[in-house]
Specification:
about 550 residues, globular, 22 helices, Growth Hormone, Chain: A
Length: about 550
């Protein structure tokens, strides 16, 4: 047993949360699994919307205006109780979120495969919900280090485990539609901010105290526990009734499995790692600068003053265009979510490799055209172009688990996916650094604000060209890395014996379609998601 296993083993020591207790029995509908995954992903997806807290927290002491201490170092800021925190210091929470997400997914992915999704989901709920409660205490005593520890570090571990908890399970429940299944779940991570950000605003305005953190922590904990306890795993060897694997062999979809300990030794793992990293780096940099980018490029055009540049706007006009740009950021989130489901589902038809070819080729064209759209002053083309780019950013996340399953088999796909997410952590540093620092360099060089991002777009094109080459180089895994069938059977033995002991009914496991129970569960997760979409569209229409 590894150190990671030792740390997490106490959860569910009684066996109630063990994987063997979650094996589906007769009468279970596989369409109950995606909403269970959404329960978790919609909660942890609030990590994208955490910026809604920055301004209120930056004046937690000063209330009306920040009580600043300009000569204070970041180290002193961690422990001060008399000065307000800087927005930049609070923003480090994003870095902690996505670094810890990748690291925890990589460290505990193997444990998750053995322990099962329910136990991982419970740990994720405790970390994410508990991290928010610790963060609330940090706000109450005004200690930034406690906020970083609770929300950033402990919450970040919850992000990692929650994010990968359903991947392997969904792929095994939907061997006929791998991309669609993971797309349905992972779109929840993109949608979490659409629900969480307006909810947080409501809570902040209602409570005006750290109670807003406590409320969100409790609500998220409850929803994540519902999702965790709704997880079921397939019996060994299960496949949908009436479905058989395609007779025609597809070299890019392996029927063999590669062990977790060997996957990272193959060139395919690292090529897919770079494919994800480069695709995400380009998109995540745009997400972070979406609001200022629209304001600086279009400036007065957003409020009917086509000849007025950004610097010539007064404070009131800048506030107007900032509100419009917030709608742009929200609209990009909507494309991000829709792309996760659309592109992942399309990948089931055209293949994972062709889907990534589309991401890179179409992305190169759109990034290259972005300066032209800006020069034309066309808000419609600019917004549509970046909407498609962000749909492919989300689609990259949702398609990669199925890509890994195609390459390495399904036995360890959740754990392999966990290790691959270190590419996300890396991209979370590369993307914003490229976009932010090139912007600062251009600004210092006296480049007009409406042209600040032209060079950046061409650099992002170059990153996508590198990703295109990596995707081209991906070939089937060499047979020397394939596990022996006897070793796979041994790993599945416990699952098979548990399934044999389970009850048998008049109809099988995983039957298709939405029954009343599944439809009700989908309504529980769909209701908040539709509310988030409505609030986003309400804000986005102001752009035009």
């Amino acid at each position: 047993m590894t150190t990671a296993d030792t740390v997490l083993a106490p959860v569910g020591a009684s066996g109630f949360l063990d994987r063997e207790r979650t094996i589906a029995t007769a009468g279970f509908n596989r369409w109950l699994v995606p909403p269970a995954a959404l329960c978790i992903h919609l909660c942890i997806g609030m990590a994208y919307g955490f910026s809604v807290f920055w301004l209120p927290l930056s004046r937690a002491i000063g209330v009306a205006a920040p009580k600043a201490c300009p000569d204070m170092s970041l180290w002193q800021e961690l422990f001060t109780t008399t000065c307000d925190w800087k927005v930049a210091s609070l923003g480090w929470m994003y870095t902690l979120f996505f670094v810890l997400l990748g690291v925890s997914a990589a460290i505990w992915g193997g444990w998750l495969e053995r322990a099962g999704p329910r136990k991982a989901g419970v740990v994720a709920a405790c970390c994410w919900g508990g991290g928010l409660l610790i963060g609330a205490f940090g706000v109450y005593v005004h200690q930034l280090w406690i906020m970083w520890l609770g929300c950033g570090v402990i919450g970040g571990v919850g992000l990692g485990l929650g994010y990968i908890s359903p991947v392997s399970t969904l792929i095994k429940w939907f061997p006929d539609r791998r991309g669609m299944a993971t797309g349905m779940a992972i779109m929840g991570f993109g949608g979490g901010a659409m629900i969480g950000a307006p909810l947080a605003n409501l809570l902040i305005n209602y409570f005006k105290t750290p109670t807003s953190f406590v409320t969100m922590g409790v609500v998220y904990f409850v929803f994540m526990m519902i999702g965790a306890f709704a997880y079921r795993v397939t019996p060994a060897g299960w496949q949908p009734e009436g479905w058989t694997p395609p007779v025609k062999a597809n070299a890019m979809i392996s029927k063999n499995n590669v062990h977790l300990n060997d996957a990272h030794k193959t060139p395919q793992f690292w090529l897919i790692w770079w494919v994800l990293c480069l695709n995400v780096s380009a998109g995540i940099g745009v997400i972070g600068m979406a609001s200022p980018m629209l304001q600086e490029i279009f400036a007065g055009k957003l409020i009917g003053l086509p000849e007025v540049g950004f610097n010539a706007l007064d404070a009131g006009q800048k506030a107007q265009i900032a509100a419009i740009a917030a709608g742009f950021a929200g609209l990009l989130s909507l494309f991000n979510i829709g792309g996760r489901f659309f592109w992942a589902s399309l990948s089931d038809r055209i293949g994972r490799k062709n889907t990534y070819y589309t991401f890179f080729i179409l992305g190169i064209v759109l990034y290259a055209l972005a300066p032209t759209f800006a020069a034309m002053g066309s808000k419609l083309l600019f917004v549509a172009g970046f909407g498609i780019i962000l749909s492919m950013y989300g689609g990259g996340f949702a398609t990669v688990p199925a890509y890994l399953a195609d390459m390495f088999g399904t036995q360890f796909v959740g754990a392999i996916h966990g290790r691959l997410l270190t590419a996300w952590s890396t991209a979370g540093i590369i993307g914003p650094v490229v976009v932010n620092y090139i912007r600062e360099f251009q600004l210092a060089a006296g480049v007009p604000r409406d042209q600040l991002y032209n060079t950046t777009m061409y650099i992002l094109c170059a990153m996508l060209i590198a990703g295109l080459i990596c995707n081209y180089l991906i070939k089937p895994v060499d047979s020397k890395w394939h596990m022996k069938e006897a070793d796979v059977a041994k790993l599945q033995a416990a699952s098979a014996s548990a399934a044999a002991a389970g009850p048998h009914g008049s109809y099988g496991i995983g039957f298709g379609g939405l029954d009343i129970k599944a439809a009700f569960f989908w309504a529980i997760v769909g209701g908040p998601l539709l509310w988030g979409v409505w609030k986003t569209l309400e804000s986005a229409v102001k752009i035009f």
